[in-house]
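User: Hi! I'm working on a homework problem where we have to compare a predicted structure to a textbook description. Could you give me the structure for the chain below?
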Amino acid sequence: MIFDKDNWQEIFIALKSNKLRTALTAFGVFWGLFMLIVLIGSGRGLYNGATKAFKNIATNSVFIWARQSTKPYKGFNRGRRFHFNNSDIDALKENLTDLEYLAPRIQLGGHRATSTVSRGLKNGSFTTYGDFPEIINIRSVNIMNGRFINDNDIKDKRKVAVIGKRVKKLLFDDDEKYMGEYIKINGVDFRVVGLFGSYATGDDAERDEETLIVPFTSFQQAFNYNNIVGYFALTSVKGVPVSIVKDRALKILASRHNIAPDDTMAFGHWNLEKVYIKINNLFLGINGLNWFVGILSLLAGIIGVSNIMLIIVKERTREIGIKRAIGATPLDITGQIVLETVFLTTVSGYAGLFLGVSLLEIVSAVIEKYGKIEMFKSPEVDLQISLIAFAILVVSGVLAGLIPAKRAIDIQPVNAISVN
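Assistant: Happy to help. Predicted C-alpha coordinates:
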Protein backbone atom coordinates (compact mmCIF):
# COMPACT_ATOMS: atom_id res chain seq x y z
CA MET A 1 0.00 0.00 0.00
CA ILE A 2 2.82 2.43 0.81
CA PHE A 3 4.33 1.94 -2.63
CA ASP A 4 1.02 2.03 -4.49
CA LYS A 5 1.09 5.01 -6.87
CA ASP A 6 -2.70 5.25 -6.97
CA ASN A 7 -2.89 5.58 -3.20
CA TRP A 8 -0.46 8.49 -3.21
CA GLN A 9 -2.37 10.19 -6.02
CA GLU A 10 -5.55 9.93 -3.95
CA ILE A 11 -3.75 11.39 -0.92
CA PHE A 12 -2.45 14.41 -2.84
CA ILE A 13 -5.82 15.01 -4.52
CA ALA A 14 -7.58 14.88 -1.14
CA LEU A 15 -5.11 17.28 0.48
CA LYS A 16 -5.19 19.69 -2.48
CA SER A 17 -8.97 19.76 -2.60
CA ASN A 18 -9.00 22.22 0.32
CA LYS A 19 -5.57 23.81 0.56
CA LEU A 20 -6.42 26.26 3.36
CA ARG A 21 -7.82 23.50 5.57
CA THR A 22 -4.79 21.31 4.90
CA ALA A 23 -2.38 24.18 5.64
CA LEU A 24 -4.07 25.07 8.92
CA THR A 25 -4.16 21.43 10.00
CA ALA A 26 -0.49 20.94 9.14
CA PHE A 27 0.42 24.14 10.99
CA GLY A 28 -1.07 22.74 14.19
CA VAL A 29 1.26 19.74 14.06
CA PHE A 30 4.19 21.88 12.90
CA TRP A 31 3.72 24.30 15.79
CA GLY A 32 3.37 21.51 18.35
CA LEU A 33 6.67 19.86 17.46
CA PHE A 34 8.38 23.22 16.94
CA MET A 35 7.40 24.31 20.46
CA LEU A 36 8.48 20.98 21.94
CA ILE A 37 11.94 21.28 20.42
CA VAL A 38 12.34 24.96 21.38
CA LEU A 39 11.20 24.35 24.97
CA ILE A 40 13.54 21.40 25.46
CA GLY A 41 16.44 23.25 23.82
CA SER A 42 15.84 26.38 25.90
CA GLY A 43 15.72 24.28 29.06
CA ARG A 44 19.05 22.78 28.08
CA GLY A 45 20.47 26.27 27.54
CA LEU A 46 19.41 27.31 31.04
CA TYR A 47 20.89 24.10 32.47
CA ASN A 48 24.21 24.67 30.68
CA GLY A 49 24.33 28.22 32.01
CA ALA A 50 23.50 27.20 35.57
CA THR A 51 26.05 24.37 35.65
CA LYS A 52 28.94 26.03 33.81
CA ALA A 53 30.55 26.83 37.17
CA PHE A 54 30.82 23.06 37.81
CA LYS A 55 32.80 22.44 34.64
CA ASN A 56 36.20 22.75 36.28
CA ILE A 57 35.41 21.34 39.70
CA ALA A 58 34.59 17.84 40.97
CA THR A 59 30.87 17.70 41.69
CA ASN A 60 31.39 15.12 44.47
CA SER A 61 33.58 17.47 46.51
CA VAL A 62 33.28 19.17 49.88
CA PHE A 63 35.31 21.97 51.46
CA ILE A 64 35.93 22.22 55.22
CA TRP A 65 37.48 25.10 57.16
CA ALA A 66 37.91 26.05 60.82
CA ARG A 67 35.87 28.82 62.48
CA GLN A 68 35.74 29.14 66.25
CA SER A 69 34.17 27.06 68.99
CA THR A 70 30.69 28.05 70.16
CA LYS A 71 30.49 25.69 73.15
CA PRO A 72 32.83 25.07 76.10
CA TYR A 73 34.51 21.66 76.03
CA LYS A 74 37.25 19.88 78.04
CA GLY A 75 38.14 23.04 79.95
CA PHE A 76 38.27 25.25 76.84
CA ASN A 77 36.00 28.30 76.72
CA ARG A 78 33.60 29.03 73.89
CA GLY A 79 34.83 31.43 71.24
CA ARG A 80 38.22 29.70 70.92
CA ARG A 81 39.88 30.05 67.53
CA PHE A 82 41.88 27.16 66.14
CA HIS A 83 43.63 26.13 62.92
CA PHE A 84 44.00 22.90 61.03
CA ASN A 85 47.57 21.62 60.86
CA ASN A 86 49.77 19.24 58.89
CA SER A 87 49.13 16.30 61.21
CA ASP A 88 45.43 16.52 60.32
CA ILE A 89 46.34 15.59 56.74
CA ASP A 90 47.69 12.17 57.71
CA ALA A 91 44.86 11.61 60.21
CA LEU A 92 42.23 12.15 57.54
CA LYS A 93 44.01 9.97 54.99
CA GLU A 94 44.39 7.13 57.48
CA ASN A 95 40.84 7.17 58.83
CA LEU A 96 38.64 8.05 55.85
CA THR A 97 38.26 4.78 53.95
CA ASP A 98 35.91 6.25 51.32
CA LEU A 99 38.20 9.20 50.57
CA GLU A 100 39.31 9.59 46.94
CA TYR A 101 41.30 12.85 46.93
CA LEU A 102 42.39 15.09 49.80
CA ALA A 103 43.84 18.49 48.99
CA PRO A 104 44.90 20.78 51.84
CA ARG A 105 45.08 24.40 50.74
CA ILE A 106 46.31 27.75 52.09
CA GLN A 107 45.51 31.18 50.72
CA LEU A 108 48.01 33.96 51.36
CA GLY A 109 46.38 36.53 53.61
CA GLY A 110 43.24 34.43 54.09
CA HIS A 111 39.88 34.25 52.30
CA ARG A 112 39.42 36.88 49.55
CA ALA A 113 42.84 38.39 50.31
CA THR A 114 45.41 39.17 47.63
CA SER A 115 49.19 39.29 47.63
CA THR A 116 51.62 41.63 45.94
CA VAL A 117 53.37 39.99 42.99
CA SER A 118 56.12 41.81 41.13
CA ARG A 119 58.71 41.43 38.46
CA GLY A 120 61.09 44.29 37.98
CA LEU A 121 59.05 47.48 37.76
CA LYS A 122 55.80 45.64 37.08
CA ASN A 123 53.55 44.51 39.91
CA GLY A 124 49.97 43.57 40.70
CA SER A 125 47.68 42.15 43.37
CA PHE A 126 46.77 38.52 42.84
CA THR A 127 45.48 35.51 44.77
CA THR A 128 48.20 33.08 45.86
CA TYR A 129 47.47 29.50 46.93
CA GLY A 130 49.67 26.86 48.53
CA ASP A 131 48.57 23.51 47.13
CA PHE A 132 49.29 19.83 46.80
CA PRO A 133 49.25 18.24 43.30
CA GLU A 134 45.92 16.53 44.18
CA ILE A 135 44.06 19.85 43.94
CA ILE A 136 43.99 19.57 40.14
CA ASN A 137 41.76 16.47 40.50
CA ILE A 138 39.25 18.52 42.49
CA ARG A 139 39.51 21.93 40.87
CA SER A 140 41.04 21.49 37.44
CA VAL A 141 42.90 24.08 35.40
CA ASN A 142 43.99 24.13 31.78
CA ILE A 143 47.79 23.82 31.71
CA MET A 144 48.74 25.83 28.62
CA ASN A 145 52.51 25.71 28.96
CA GLY A 146 55.00 24.06 31.27
CA ARG A 147 53.67 21.91 34.12
CA PHE A 148 51.68 21.83 37.32
CA ILE A 149 53.27 21.40 40.76
CA ASN A 150 54.35 17.82 41.54
CA ASP A 151 55.34 15.59 44.46
CA ASN A 152 59.02 16.52 44.19
CA ASP A 153 58.10 20.18 44.56
CA ILE A 154 56.30 19.30 47.78
CA LYS A 155 59.09 17.06 49.07
CA ASP A 156 61.96 19.45 48.29
CA LYS A 157 60.00 22.62 49.17
CA ARG A 158 60.86 24.13 45.80
CA LYS A 159 60.02 27.78 45.30
CA VAL A 160 58.23 27.37 41.99
CA ALA A 161 54.95 28.85 40.78
CA VAL A 162 52.26 28.07 38.22
CA ILE A 163 50.70 31.35 37.12
CA GLY A 164 47.38 32.29 35.52
CA LYS A 165 47.08 33.89 32.08
CA ARG A 166 46.27 37.36 33.43
CA VAL A 167 49.22 37.23 35.83
CA LYS A 168 51.51 36.53 32.90
CA LYS A 169 49.87 39.27 30.83
CA LEU A 170 50.40 41.91 33.52
CA LEU A 171 53.94 40.93 34.52
CA PHE A 172 55.42 39.97 31.14
CA ASP A 173 55.32 41.48 27.66
CA ASP A 174 53.62 39.43 24.95
CA ASP A 175 56.85 38.31 23.27
CA GLU A 176 58.87 38.09 26.47
CA LYS A 177 60.18 34.82 27.91
CA TYR A 178 58.43 33.89 31.13
CA MET A 179 59.07 30.16 31.66
CA GLY A 180 61.96 29.76 34.10
CA GLU A 181 61.91 33.45 35.05
CA TYR A 182 61.59 34.64 38.64
CA ILE A 183 58.80 36.66 40.18
CA LYS A 184 58.42 37.97 43.72
CA ILE A 185 55.41 37.04 45.85
CA ASN A 186 55.33 39.33 48.88
CA GLY A 187 59.05 39.81 48.38
CA VAL A 188 59.93 36.10 48.06
CA ASP A 189 61.40 34.78 44.79
CA PHE A 190 59.55 32.01 42.95
CA ARG A 191 60.45 30.55 39.55
CA VAL A 192 57.69 30.24 36.94
CA VAL A 193 57.29 26.61 35.79
CA GLY A 194 53.81 26.65 34.29
CA LEU A 195 51.02 28.73 32.78
CA PHE A 196 47.33 27.89 33.13
CA GLY A 197 44.00 29.13 31.87
CA SER A 198 40.53 28.59 33.27
CA TYR A 199 37.84 26.26 31.99
CA ALA A 200 35.24 28.70 33.31
CA THR A 201 33.87 31.70 31.40
CA GLY A 202 33.25 35.39 32.10
CA ASP A 203 34.10 36.79 35.51
CA ASP A 204 34.81 33.33 36.92
CA ALA A 205 37.52 32.76 34.33
CA GLU A 206 39.06 36.17 34.94
CA ARG A 207 39.16 35.54 38.69
CA ASP A 208 40.76 32.09 38.21
CA GLU A 209 43.41 33.45 35.87
CA GLU A 210 44.48 36.13 38.37
CA THR A 211 45.85 33.35 40.56
CA LEU A 212 49.24 31.83 41.38
CA ILE A 213 49.71 28.29 42.70
CA VAL A 214 52.85 27.32 44.63
CA PRO A 215 53.79 24.10 46.48
CA PHE A 216 52.08 23.80 49.86
CA THR A 217 55.30 23.12 51.80
CA SER A 218 57.30 25.97 50.28
CA PHE A 219 54.31 28.29 50.89
CA GLN A 220 54.36 27.45 54.62
CA GLN A 221 58.10 27.98 54.81
CA ALA A 222 58.31 31.15 52.70
CA PHE A 223 55.45 33.01 54.36
CA ASN A 224 55.91 31.77 57.96
CA TYR A 225 52.72 29.76 58.14
CA ASN A 226 54.53 27.06 60.15
CA ASN A 227 52.23 23.99 59.86
CA ILE A 228 48.92 25.81 59.41
CA VAL A 229 46.40 24.45 56.91
CA GLY A 230 43.78 26.90 55.59
CA TYR A 231 41.10 24.40 54.57
CA PHE A 232 40.59 20.94 53.16
CA ALA A 233 39.10 20.03 49.79
CA LEU A 234 38.13 16.39 49.50
CA THR A 235 36.15 14.01 47.31
CA SER A 236 34.60 10.60 47.91
CA VAL A 237 35.10 7.43 45.90
CA LYS A 238 32.54 6.63 43.22
CA GLY A 239 29.21 5.47 44.61
CA VAL A 240 29.66 7.01 48.06
CA PRO A 241 27.94 10.36 48.81
CA VAL A 242 30.54 12.92 49.83
CA SER A 243 28.30 13.95 52.73
CA ILE A 244 29.22 10.65 54.43
CA VAL A 245 32.93 11.43 54.10
CA LYS A 246 32.29 15.00 55.28
CA ASP A 247 30.54 13.85 58.47
CA ARG A 248 33.36 11.43 59.30
CA ALA A 249 35.99 14.08 58.59
CA LEU A 250 34.25 16.57 60.90
CA LYS A 251 34.20 14.00 63.73
CA ILE A 252 37.92 13.32 63.29
CA LEU A 253 38.80 17.02 63.22
CA ALA A 254 36.55 17.82 66.17
CA SER A 255 38.23 15.12 68.25
CA ARG A 256 41.71 16.25 67.28
CA HIS A 257 41.06 19.92 68.12
CA ASN A 258 38.98 19.40 71.28
CA ILE A 259 35.74 20.66 69.80
CA ALA A 260 32.45 19.54 71.36
CA PRO A 261 30.82 16.80 69.22
CA ASP A 262 27.59 18.82 69.01
CA ASP A 263 29.31 22.13 68.17
CA THR A 264 28.14 22.34 64.58
CA MET A 265 29.21 25.98 64.18
CA ALA A 266 32.90 25.36 64.89
CA PHE A 267 33.49 24.23 61.31
CA GLY A 268 32.46 25.78 58.04
CA HIS A 269 31.76 23.44 55.15
CA TRP A 270 30.37 23.63 51.66
CA ASN A 271 29.03 20.48 50.06
CA LEU A 272 29.20 20.98 46.31
CA GLU A 273 27.57 17.61 45.63
CA LYS A 274 24.46 18.72 47.52
CA VAL A 275 24.23 21.93 45.48
CA TYR A 276 24.77 20.03 42.23
CA ILE A 277 22.04 17.50 43.05
CA LYS A 278 19.59 20.31 43.87
CA ILE A 279 20.30 22.02 40.54
CA ASN A 280 19.91 18.72 38.67
CA ASN A 281 16.60 18.02 40.40
CA LEU A 282 15.37 21.53 39.62
CA PHE A 283 16.14 21.17 35.94
CA LEU A 284 14.73 17.65 35.89
CA GLY A 285 11.43 19.23 36.91
CA ILE A 286 11.80 22.02 34.35
CA ASN A 287 12.59 19.49 31.63
CA GLY A 288 9.55 17.41 32.62
CA LEU A 289 7.35 20.52 32.47
CA ASN A 290 8.76 21.39 29.03
CA TRP A 291 7.96 17.89 27.77
CA PHE A 292 4.46 18.10 29.25
CA VAL A 293 3.66 21.47 27.65
CA GLY A 294 5.32 20.52 24.36
CA ILE A 295 3.51 17.20 24.06
CA LEU A 296 0.19 18.87 24.90
CA SER A 297 0.83 21.35 22.07
CA LEU A 298 1.69 18.46 19.77
CA LEU A 299 -1.42 16.51 20.79
CA ALA A 300 -3.57 19.55 20.09
CA GLY A 301 -2.26 19.50 16.53
CA ILE A 302 -2.76 15.74 16.25
CA ILE A 303 -6.35 16.02 17.46
CA GLY A 304 -6.87 18.68 14.83
CA VAL A 305 -5.60 16.27 12.18
CA SER A 306 -7.96 13.54 13.42
CA ASN A 307 -10.95 15.88 13.30
CA ILE A 308 -10.09 17.04 9.80
CA MET A 309 -9.75 13.43 8.66
CA LEU A 310 -13.23 12.72 10.03
CA ILE A 311 -14.53 15.55 7.87
CA ILE A 312 -12.61 14.21 4.87
CA VAL A 313 -14.04 10.72 5.43
CA LYS A 314 -17.56 12.16 5.51
CA GLU A 315 -16.92 14.08 2.28
CA ARG A 316 -15.61 10.91 0.62
CA THR A 317 -18.41 8.64 1.78
CA ARG A 318 -19.53 7.83 -1.78
CA GLU A 319 -15.96 7.14 -2.90
CA ILE A 320 -15.35 4.79 0.04
CA GLY A 321 -18.65 3.01 -0.61
CA ILE A 322 -17.68 2.37 -4.23
CA LYS A 323 -14.31 0.98 -3.14
CA ARG A 324 -16.03 -1.36 -0.71
CA ALA A 325 -18.50 -2.44 -3.38
CA ILE A 326 -15.76 -3.42 -5.86
CA GLY A 327 -13.84 -5.47 -3.33
CA ALA A 328 -11.74 -3.18 -1.12
CA THR A 329 -11.23 -4.80 2.28
CA PRO A 330 -11.55 -2.97 5.63
CA LEU A 331 -7.77 -3.25 5.93
CA ASP A 332 -7.35 -1.45 2.58
CA ILE A 333 -9.63 1.39 3.68
CA THR A 334 -7.96 1.64 7.11
CA GLY A 335 -4.48 1.65 5.57
CA GLN A 336 -5.46 4.40 3.14
CA ILE A 337 -6.81 6.71 5.86
CA VAL A 338 -3.96 6.02 8.30
CA LEU A 339 -1.36 6.54 5.56
CA GLU A 340 -2.92 9.88 4.66
CA THR A 341 -2.90 10.95 8.32
CA VAL A 342 0.69 9.82 8.95
CA PHE A 343 1.86 11.58 5.78
CA LEU A 344 0.31 14.88 6.85
CA THR A 345 1.62 14.70 10.42
CA THR A 346 5.09 13.49 9.41
CA VAL A 347 5.74 16.17 6.80
CA SER A 348 4.46 19.02 8.96
CA GLY A 349 6.17 17.59 12.07
CA TYR A 350 9.50 17.25 10.28
CA ALA A 351 9.26 20.88 9.24
CA GLY A 352 8.67 21.85 12.88
CA LEU A 353 11.59 19.69 14.00
CA PHE A 354 13.93 21.13 11.38
CA LEU A 355 13.02 24.76 12.04
CA GLY A 356 13.12 24.27 15.82
CA VAL A 357 16.65 22.82 15.71
CA SER A 358 17.73 25.50 13.22
CA LEU A 359 16.43 28.28 15.48
CA LEU A 360 18.33 26.87 18.46
CA GLU A 361 21.53 26.67 16.41
CA ILE A 362 21.13 30.28 15.27
CA VAL A 363 20.46 31.54 18.81
CA SER A 364 23.45 29.60 20.13
CA ALA A 365 25.74 31.06 17.46
CA VAL A 366 24.50 34.62 18.06
CA ILE A 367 24.98 34.34 21.83
CA GLU A 368 28.47 32.91 21.38
CA LYS A 369 29.57 35.56 18.90
CA TYR A 370 27.87 38.79 19.95
CA GLY A 371 26.80 38.61 23.55
CA LYS A 372 27.61 35.91 26.05
CA ILE A 373 24.73 35.48 28.47
CA GLU A 374 26.04 33.94 31.68
CA MET A 375 22.81 32.14 32.58
CA PHE A 376 21.98 30.86 29.08
CA LYS A 377 24.54 28.84 27.15
CA SER A 378 24.42 26.56 24.11
CA PRO A 379 20.69 25.80 23.77
CA GLU A 380 20.56 22.45 22.03
CA VAL A 381 18.61 19.26 21.48
CA ASP A 382 20.61 16.08 21.01
CA LEU A 383 19.85 13.52 18.31
CA GLN A 384 18.25 11.04 20.70
CA ILE A 385 15.70 13.60 21.90
CA SER A 386 14.93 14.58 18.30
CA LEU A 387 14.35 10.94 17.35
CA ILE A 388 12.11 10.39 20.39
CA ALA A 389 10.04 13.47 19.51
CA PHE A 390 9.73 12.34 15.90
CA ALA A 391 8.75 8.81 17.01
CA ILE A 392 6.03 10.30 19.22
CA LEU A 393 4.82 12.23 16.22
CA VAL A 394 4.60 9.17 13.96
CA VAL A 395 2.82 7.06 16.60
CA SER A 396 0.42 9.94 17.25
CA GLY A 397 -0.24 10.16 13.52
CA VAL A 398 -1.16 6.48 13.40
CA LEU A 399 -3.47 6.82 16.39
CA ALA A 400 -5.03 9.97 14.93
CA GLY A 401 -5.88 8.03 11.77
CA LEU A 402 -7.54 5.09 13.50
CA ILE A 403 -10.73 6.94 14.53
CA PRO A 404 -11.56 8.26 11.06
CA ALA A 405 -10.49 4.89 9.61
CA LYS A 406 -12.97 3.13 11.89
CA ARG A 407 -15.63 5.56 10.71
CA ALA A 408 -14.72 4.77 7.10
CA ILE A 409 -14.98 0.98 7.39
CA ASP A 410 -18.32 1.29 9.19
CA ILE A 411 -19.81 2.81 6.06
CA GLN A 412 -22.12 0.32 4.30
CA PRO A 413 -21.45 0.19 0.55
CA VAL A 414 -25.19 0.31 -0.40
CA ASN A 415 -25.86 3.34 1.79
CA ALA A 416 -22.68 5.09 0.68
CA ILE A 417 -23.40 4.69 -3.04
CA SER A 418 -26.91 6.07 -2.58
CA VAL A 419 -25.58 9.28 -0.97
CA ASN A 420 -26.04 12.25 -3.28
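For your comparison, note the following. The radius of gyration is 34 Å. Residues 12 and 340 are 9 Å apart (CA to CA). Good luck with the assignment!
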